[in-house]
Amino acid sequence: MNPVRSRRCTLRAPFVALGLLVFPLFGDAETPRVQFFADTNLRLELVKDRRQPKAAEALTFSARGGAEFDLAPRLRLLAELEGAATLAGAFDDGRGQGRDRPRIPDPPNAELNRLLLSGDAWPGWSFVLGRQYLTDSRQRYFGRSGWRQSRQSFDALAIRGEIGPDFRLELAYLDRVWRSTGRFHPDPAERSQRLDAWLANGTLDLLGGRLEAFLHAIEGEEPRVLRHRNQGLRWRWEYPLSNTGQVDLLLEAARQRQEERPTWLAYRAAELGLTARGIELRLGLEYEGGDGQRAFQTPFGSGHSFNGWADRFGTTPPDGLLDRYLGLSGRALGEAQWILRRHWFRTTRDGRSLGREWNAELVVPFAEARLRFKLADHRAEPPSEDLAKFWMSLEWALPGP
User: Fold this and answer.
1) Whole-angstrom distance, CA of residue 226 vs CA of residue 195
2) Exposure string for 106-124, b = 16+ CB within 10 A, e = fewer
3) Tell me, what's the pLDDT at 244?
4) Which string of DSSP letters, residue by residue, matches 283-323?
5) Rounded to an integer, what is the distance from CA 400 to the centroid of its chain?
6) What is the pLDDT of residues 126-180, one digit of tens each?
7) E strand segments, 91-225
8) Residue 269, Cα to own-chain centre: how many angstroms?
9) Closest to 8 measured CA to CA, from 153, 189, 225
10) d(Cα 80, Cα 78) in Å, to the nearest integer?
């Protein structure tokens, strides 16, 4: 018998048994409810990468839609379909074509994105069983890759609850990840990967803020699954300055041990935010350690939100990455939102410069939709690796669960 598969069945058994014990607790629904939700995104993306001989242009469209049904007073079923299409353009979508152009990883797709049961088993406790989004509070380690036209989901069981007035606990077992590359990728390991992963997160109200402790144990059958352990602490603190202002602080320290590596790789993050008169100033740094051969990685996180929107560092370089950044954001012309950021990148191992980057965004809402303009300009060292991206998108959403 395959020892990995046998161990997975053994580890999965307590959660399956728990789910079977929970279902009989629910009676018949008295007032069935159905909530529909949907969203669409029509996006134009332009990319100029000096490492490629040609530029890339992509006009893509994505749509998601589904519904959540009440099966009983404390039991719900949610189903969501997802689709993406290429309308025009010339680019590398990650499936082996257009390799003389920069990659825009938004290939055509059609799949069942979510199918889950959720419920409230006991007072203060809930569960979600099935294909679902699974995220940490920053989406740094686990996220849905929400920037891409197709999103990432997991086959998992998640349990959340409260122990006393100040402590919250989250436990999850992950059986499979469905990547944002979509179901039509020619490489099955790029479409999805079998996992044997345990996640635990505890949150405690402390010192006027919120302290999180997390543990991740990731295994998998696919050779390309990064088998690793994460251990970390995260503290958030906010203090109101006035009716429209506040100061907030984020501190995080974590470490990672990868398969067959005896040493731990370090992660550090610090961010200070100040909001006054509708303008937000944000100053921060992120340290991802590297030893010259391997570096701290977050293969299941929503990486676009970190280390610059150009996504030059989707995989942390072997010498590590230090990202120091400064950002401003606010509102203009009523409800329009704008963001301006500046990043400075270096290796953590020897302090070598990896370039600088400007990010800018303007989001203009109207009716039930919004128009988004976004720019990333990465000036690398050497300059032969400069990278620039521009996006314009029309987004619409009918909110749901």
Assistant:
1) 10
2) bbbbebebbbbbbbbbeee
3) 80
4) EEEEEE-B-SS-B---TBS-GGGSS-TT-TTSS--TT-EEE
5) 19
6) 999 999 999 999 999 999 999 999 999 999 999 999 998 899 999 999 999 999 9
7) 109-122, 125-132, 153-163, 167-178, 192-206, 209-220
8) 17
9) 225
10) 7
Retrieve residue 235's tokens. Answer: 């503290």
Name the one residue in this structure whose structure tokens are 């500046």.
Answer: 342
Q: How many helices (H) and strands (E) does the chain have?
A: 2, 18
Q: How many angstroms separate the CA atoms of 317 and 92, rounded?
A: 22
- Angstrom distance (rounded) from CA 154 to CA 33: 26
CA 349/CA 292 separation, integer angstroms: 7
Fold designation for 38-398: Porin (2.40.160)
392 contacts 364 by C-beta, under 8 angstroms: no
Token look-up 């302290």 returns: 211
User: Tokens standing for 175?
Assistant: 């059986």
Residue with tokens 């409800």: 335
Residue that the structure tokens 């959403």 belong to: 397
Query: What SS3 state is found at 190?
Result: helix
Q: Which two tokens stand for residue 40?
A: 């669409």
Helix-strand-coil percent breakdown of the chain, rounded to 5? 10, 60, 35
Count CA atoms within 13 Å of residue 78 on its CB side: 21
pLDDT computed for residue 99 by the predictor: 80
Element containing residue 391 per DSSP (H, E): strand 387-398
Bin 290: left if φ > 0, else alpha if -120 < ψ < 50, else beta.
beta
**CA pair distance 111, 285, nearest whole angstrom:** 37
* Count of other CB atoms within 10 angstroms of residue 188: 10
Please, are residues 23 and 77 in contact by the beta-carbon 8 Å criterion?
A: no
Question: 3-class DSSP state for residue 245?
Answer: coil
Domain parsing of the chain, residue ranges: 38-398
- Lookup result for tokens 């050497």: 382
pLDDT value of residue 337:
96
Helices (H), 150-271: 188-191
